[in-house]
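haha ok so turns out i had the wrong file open the whole time. this is the CORRECT one, sorry everyone. sequence first:
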Amino acid sequence: MGEYPNCYDVAWGFLPCVNFLVGFQETPSYCCNQIKFLNKIAKQNNGQKRICKCIEEVVYECGHRLVSSRVDSLANICGVKPGFPISNSMDCNT
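then structure:
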């Protein structure tokens, strides 16, 4: 049996945030609901570390850097703080 959460689920949950976080979209729209979904997963066994590694892969694959000010504003805009790291220089081993 594979590790949960798997990166497919995390990527599918995080993709609505990518366009906002890289600066292609002005509002995070559906992203806020997905952050709440991912926060639930983050509370499960090893969830934060798995989500971090998967987001790292998604950001790398999209080929664009995240806009730091957008990452910082996400919690205020969505009204919920992500329970996992999001940045261009994440350390998923901590």
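The two ends are 25 Å apart (CA to CA).
again sry for the mixup
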